[in-house]
What we know:
The complex is a heterodimer. By secondary structure, chain A is α/β, with parallel strands linked by helices. Chain A has helices at about 20-35, 40-50, 60-70, 70-80, 80-85, 120-125, 135-140, 145-150, 185-190, 195-200, 205-210; strands spanning about 95-100, 105-110, 160-165, 170-175. Chain A has one domain: Nitrile Hydratase, Chain A (Alpha-Beta Complex). The two termini of chain A are about 25 Å apart. Chain B is mostly helical. Chain B folds into two domains: about 1-80; about 80-115, no CATH class. In chain B, helix 1 (about 20-35) runs parallel beside helix 3 and helix 2 (about 40-50) crosses helix 3. The mean pLDDT of chain B is about 85. The chains are: A alpha/beta, B mainly alpha. Chains A and B meet through helix 1 and helix 2 of A and helix 1, helix 3 and helix 4 of B.
Amino acid sequence: MSDHHHHDDHDHHHDNHYSDMQARVKALETLLTAKGLIDPAAIDAIVETYETKVGPRNGAQVVAKAWVDAEFRDWLTRDATAAIASLGFSGRQGEHMRAVFNAPDEHNLVVCTLCSCYPWSVLGLPPVWYKAPAYRSRAVMDPRGVLAEFGVTLPEDTRIRVWDSTAELRYLVVPERPAGTERLNEAALAALVTRDSMIGTGLALSPEALALQPEAAR
Amino acid sequence: MAASPGLPLSRDGDPVFPEPWAAEAFALTVHLHERGIFTWADWAETLSREVHRPGRAVDGSDYYECWVAALSDLLVRCGVADEAAIATLSASWQRAAEATPHGRPIELANDPQSTAV
């Protein structure tokens, strides 16, 4: 259906591509905005209400499997594209994926959704703020400050690595498995993996934090 | 909003979207209705006609394609858009996307043939 990226030999020099549907929706938005019939901020706000409802968010299942299955984790480290595809989640955009793993002394943060390179079929819809050019530049210059704004305060000696996706390669952050989850099965673990934790602007939820979340926010 | 014929819903009763553009089309429709551009009855009828058009997917996989076609159709009938303008702008957005290098926002002005809207 959608075909955001052509990676065939004919046009691999093109970084961005809009499907007919993407282009038509953009055209309607442009026309209606020009006529003053819509307020783009209001559209963003409505979309934001449903951002967790877009795309399959398959990444959460990938992360949960990596937490419980050492062999899968190893495969994910070596060849994330194939490991993710083995779960039936081949990138609809034909993207190559790389998994980056958080550890006690290292945190990973992914930037760039300015173009169409965000792997939403794996991660779900990007948050609206993530598309702001200011986020991208600040995340590169001051990742610790940006993370603090998201309520993620890391120890001083934790190294922060910032990954800028390219047109050919997109990243999935594998957050650390929360403490006290030894008894949980994969499905229960996947529920702890938020979209934000897979782009590095959050951590995986503890079971207690999940219980406090309103149903709609999951 | 739940009254859109055939709207795919999650177990919690929320709409689910196969792709980001579908969520945008949904948001546009809700917003335009809130602004009184059309009634929900008009919308539901237009969408229903698209969904039941011969040749549509039996499994409903093209539901949001129908949605976008219905929205275009309704806006044309309301006199706020015309099909030629929509098609011209769509083509312009596609050229703009192709011409935008990685890491830069896709803007309509990036269309090499842009003559401004």
